[in-house]
Amino acid sequence: MNQDVDLKFVDEAIDSIGRGPESVIALLQAIQTHYRYLPPEALEYLCDNTDITPARVTGVSTFYTQFRHKPVGKHMIGVCHGTACHVKGAQNIHDALDRHLGLTDGEDTDADELFTVHKVACLGCCTLAPAVQIDHLTYGHLTPDTVGKMLHDFLAEGDKHPGKLGSGIGIDVADDMAEVRIGLGSCCVASGSEKIYRAMVDAVERTNARAVIKPVGCIGMCHRTPMLELVTPDRTSHLYAKVDPQDAEAIIRRHIRPPGMLRRFTATLRQTVDSLLTDQAWGVALRRSIDARDKPVSDFLSRQKHIATECCGYVNPVDIEEYIAHGGFEAMKGILAESDPEATIDTIVASGLRGRGGAGFPTGRKWREVAGTDSETRYIVCNGDEGDPGAFMDRMILESYPYRVIEGMVIASKTVGARQGYLYIRAEYPLAVRRVRQAIEVCMERGLLGGNILDSGHSLTLKIMEGAGAFVCGEETALLASIEGRRGMPALRPPFPAHCGLWGKPTLVNNTETFAVVPWIIRNGPEAFARMGTETSKGTKVFSLAGKIARGGLIEVPMGITVGQIVEEIGGGIAGGKAFKAVQIGGPSGGCVPASLGDTTVDYEALTSVGAMMGSGGLVVLDESDCMVDITRYFLEFTQDQSCGQCTPCRIGTRRMLDILTRLCTGEGRTGDLERLDELARHVKQSSLCGLGKTAPNPVLSTLKYFREEYEAHLEGRCPAGRCKALITYSITDDCIGCTLCAQHCPSDAIAMTPYQKHQIDPEKCTRCDACKTICPQGAVRID
Amino acid sequence: MPKLLIDNQEIQVPEGTTVLDAAARLGIEIPTMCYLPSAGSGTSCMVCAVAISGKENLVPACATKAEDGMQVDTRGEEVLAARRTNLELLLSDHVGDCIAPCQMADPNKANIPAVIRHIAAGDTASAAELLAGNLADIDGAKPQRACRRGRRDEPVAIDLLLKYVAAHAGRAATAQASDAPAGHRFSVHMGKLSETELERFMVGISPDPQIIPADPQAGYTHAEAAAEAKRCMHCDCRKSDNCKLRDYAEACGAKSAHFRTTRREFIQNLEHPDVIYEPGKCIRCGLCVRITEQEGEPCALSFVGRGFGVRVAPSLDRDISQALQKAAIRCVEACPTGALAMRSKSNGS
User: Fold this and answer.
1) Class of the domain covering B3-75
2) A426-449: per-residue pLDDT in tens?
């Protein structure tokens, strides 16, 4: 602990944020950003100098994952334990990190206080799984073997902070200029698109090409990131996938002629020299080039329908002019000019739009409830607290289409009569927070938000509330508690927030995606929206497609498409030729749809009927090497930690389910465990207080239903998929050529180096980290 | 004024009445642990869960408002099973004995932990009073074998301690009451009676009382006894006869061993001069958290953490004497288990 904590900062924070109890989360966030943890002295001082009680500070600061009460090392390593990372071996990565840093017995900081390792529920970079974040840098596609190299690289490179990106606002684009669009969503950035961006800016400067480099939102094709699209002045588009910064100049030269004869000459000369001295410059550009007409690309794109993600991949997220040029704020203007909220509600009802947060409550009905309340004050809240591991739709929408969400909120606020609103966004999504904040500022300047919007007489002030890391805050009553500066504990409904919400006032809470589709519905009419989808589920749904899939990414598909079509046609089936086993839909609240039920349609009722749930839209594809008991154990570990701890069935019931699942995965299952598990799952579902508890048993119930034989195998001490470490052994077959690679990479010295001879694994020393199997060029490592 | 049916009985209640209160008006008691009229509901224990027709899930009666036309079932099979499971879940995370193992093992079921606390405090008379039933034929061997301290190092020498009480508490007498069945002996000790008074009293009951003389020379000295007594881990629950969890578990047939699992560690916190805090017994109902807030405790109790790991503790890591400066009695009375209990003369603490 610091002997003398300089408390001046706390005063500054109080002055700028506020001293009321509702400010506690923001204050704690500021204090932690400044001191890198919450020093006890600062907390005492905070209580002494504000209206916030010690009980509030203690309750709140220990509820949210973000807050740390202990000093940390110089760098923070967040190991993603999202669903996609889990199935791709996140625990092995975590173990490898612990080994490299010499951490034992639950220690999280190394002896040199250089690194602190912590678990992250989901970084939302599911297509890069398994992923790790060190400070601002994200590393993807890791193996236990590359962890050491990653740490080394970080220490060599990581301290050089990348420069700030140009905001892209206000760049004048002349008609004869080419446009280079680079996806700068969080996952693109994680796979290196910032470097591409800078390389492109350099390349354009060097070649004097008449081109503008434009950051755009998520393109969705995360499996091919980093991507860029170059649009020549004649508006033809050229897509490049998996671009390397070295390719920048070659790509520019391929499409854009430098201006002026002399420059063209010098450029050609230099390029010739380049191609002589280095790689084939043209060749590189051609190799990275893909065509939207390429079959995989068109398969990925053609079945999609962009509504929430309209203008996907070609607008600059924070450029309001572009948003307006593509029809932005038209819907809002129409609604503001019209004085009949009832008509707007009728439109939304007619569209059949249902809440995109998962439960699927009809949006129009919710609006009508709030509009019909008898209250002077009403609030509107955008739920962007996407906590499901394996889901990143809200993040992408907020990062890529902040104006659209704001427009949807203005329309809704006018309709229900709310003048103040909040966007609740996870603090783990810094880019989303930054872009939305910027968008709000721009809207305020232009009179699109604030008092008397566009002279309509309607006013709306929007504030951002950064969530501090609690999955349960996705539940609306918990989210409202959090905005009020309390622990995110859900309340019994009724009363619903529509009647008694924020500070007891009627409050409209809708999901980010729900708000994002509203402007489209208003512009195109409810019929156009209702034409898509099924009887009870209309329009489109955004999913994040990840796991063992060939083409992962962010997709928006019409309702009614089948799960099988998503996996096979859009996702290109299973990567690596293994057999498709199941799709986990809806994260910890959802369930597993087995491959045999691939005809199940994307529809609220259809998914519920097979034991899954629309949820917020995480789709994690599993193959034959995934153990369903292990996956279920993984989700229960998540929910029992994320439960708010209020009601008995959820707090203790989920833990007791986890106990049983852990026993099964470690070969200690007892007779009757499956029956006990089933009984308990039904009990927790039936008698928990809020949605988290009511849905937490879904992973258990659906896997027990479809994969019971796997559970029975675990009772007998077998893991058919070969995943549960306690139930498997590694051995080397006669295919071994004695190359010694396994012995070199074994982190626990379980393989003696015997060149040109068959190697052997010592089962006592083996930690089942899978490093030998991953590295063996002969496929000679066997799991039994 | 909503009119509703509870277990097929009709009742009309004022707007805003909870199902729990409406049922109470009909004389139907729904067990509840996290609700008190003075401190509201924590919607936590879910022991008051009831079924409402048309609703898929059970709801907590303590927070569900009565609505017109509601049909409530408070004792159907499904409701009783859920109630029992919730109690069993609570019991599975409830550490500590209702009755100390030494007391369970004692043939006379004497409150041995309290006896030992009196010894530690040098109050042999009170100790003897508690042992009144068996001072004459003291046998501490069985309780000593059950002592939890034995798992850590050596069991508390209960046998010697009880003999010490018998020896130092003056004289004891046993008698066969003339109107009691044969073998139904009882004994008194004469801590406060003179020998003559004792004899007169015993003769009144039995023609043949046996007076056993005290032998202050035998066994432990005062200091030795006190020292040994201080090794006691006080496994007994100070609220064993005033515990809602125990009462409801018995009434609903909930078994603490239903969910077999590893238990948390038993911790006893004695920082407060008047209160014993045993966090392992806490069921996170939040009543004390709400009461300390109501009472304006400057360093109120708070929930710490979340999920299965959530616990109740004084805010800002203070000790519990600071958290319960004015609200101690209310909190102890409200606490549905032995997590918060008063130290008192009667239990020797």
Assistant:
1) alpha beta
2) 888 888 999 999 999 999 999 999
